[in-house]
Amino acid sequence: MESDRAFKNSFPDYSGEALLDSNRKLKEPYQHKIVKSIEKLVKHLEGSFEPDRKDDSIYTGNAGQAFLSLHLHSKFAPAGDDRHLQRARDMLRPCLQRLTGSRVSFLCGDAGPLALAAVLYHKLGKLERARGYIESLEDMCDRVCSDSSLPDEILYGRCGYLSALIFLQHNMGEDCVSKEVVAGVVEAILKSGEAMAKRERCSYPLMYLWHEKAYLGAAHGLAGIYFMLLQVQSPSLQDRIRRQVRPCIDFMLTLRFASGNCPSSLGSASGDKLVHWCHGAPGWVHMFALAFKIYKDKRYLDAARDCAEVVWRRGLLQKGYGICHGTAGNSYTFLTLFKLTEDQRFLYYAVRFAEWCCEYGKHGCRTPDRPLSMFEGMAGTVYFLVDVLDPLNSAFPCFDFQ
Ligand SMILES: [Zn+2]
Q1: Pfam families of this UniProt entry (predicted)?
Q2: Is 44 annotated to bind ligand?
């Protein structure tokens, strides 16, 4: 199906070319072309981004710039060069002084600046200060667990808080966060899902609604929630999570469109339209890929492959080059498949989409409301381009902690 939401993909099909060099990084001349583009875009970002007193989030605000700076530091900075860390510190400092307590998630709430500050000060060797931010994050747990008005999804809810904890464990070791806090929030998410599954008479154990609607995608829906639960590392929690989530993913398998794309909500009348991380196959693919790794059931691998094929056909979005609903976020579908299978066809797809992103602004895409931001704009595109250079160590930002 051709779509008015996407540009026609006119790239030639994969010819069998090997794309990695002897260090298992992206080979030349692709590497050089993408590095040049990153340098140009970073220069533009650093010269143009104006901090916004009203938006400290990672998703569209100031902390998102800090998040990109941490990524640039970890991928590019020579020993002793703290330039990117300093920018991250400058971006985060005001955010930390005006935490609002109104939102709890990593992407859109206080958990974002707090978790980033912990990692930043850990890298700067200021361990006590890092500890203080972790404790502030842990202090939010009681409210996250007990506030019945909170949803469970990634963008504003409990799984969004859980993702900040997993991010910290990924960067600083599993023991950096209290086991009780992780167990507490996981318990609250499972309980909430069990209660909703019972209320809705579901044939699978965990169900979640957002604003009384059964969203299915990564940002507000089931794919994001199940994926985040499966990333919990504690052995004492894993058995139960894996047992409960598997029948849910089997249910998700049955919902897919013939094209390989995935619906945005249960009973949605809008049909097979959106191919975004937030709504559609580019969000579900992460869940299918991890499910295949854990359960070794080939149906999940086949579903993940179907996601990649639909993103290849319909993923060059007119909405722009961003992470949430843009070409960069869609490209992580291919990086995920490449990491899972090491089939270079998927790396080829990612490289072609990266080349598309290197032509930033030249396709007549719509300009997002927050054009320089991490999840809607240029910062996220840069994040993706950096990841393509080292594809085996890439991961969808703030979401995939494999
Ligand atoms: Zn989106």
Answers
A1: LANC_like (PF05147)
A2: no
Q: To which residue do tokens 């937030």 refer? A: 278
Q: How far is CA 92 from CA 24, 62, 77, 150, 204, in A?
A: 34, 7, 19, 26, 42
- Spacing, Cα 377 to ligand 1 middle (Å): 11
Q: Would residue 282 count as lying in a domain?
A: no
Percent of the chain with pLDDT over 70: 99
Q: Could you tell me the distance, in angstroms and rounded to a whole number, from the CA of residue 40 to the centre of ligand 1?
A: 25
Residue 80 lies in a domain: yes
What is the CA(280)–ligand 1 centre distance, in A? Answer: 10
The Å distance, Cα 215 to ligand 1 centre, comes to 13
For ligand 1, the distance from its centroid to the CA atom of residue 291, given in whole angstroms, is 23
CA distance 380 to 373: 7
Q: CA 26, CA 351: separation in Å to the nearest integer?
A: 9
Q: Which residue has the tokens 């070794």?
A: 296
What domain range includes position 120?
53-200
In a domain, 81, yes or no: yes
Q: What is the distance between the alpha carbons of residues 297 and 53, in angstroms, rounded to a whole number?
A: 48
Q: Is the pLDDT of residue 226 over 90?
A: yes
Determine the distance separating the centroid of ligand 1 and the alpha carbon of 382, expressed in angstroms: 17
Q: In the chain, how many domains are there?
A: 1
Q: How far apart are CA 230 and CA 245, in angstroms?
A: 8
Does residue 190 have a pLDDT over 70? yes
Alpha carbon of 190 to ligand 1 centroid (Å):
25
- Residue 325 in marked binding region: yes
pLDDT digits (tens, 9 = 90+) for 41-61: 999 999 999 999 999 999 999
In a domain, 273, yes or no: no
Distance CA 207, CA 209 (A): 7
Mean pLDDT of the residues in the chain: 96
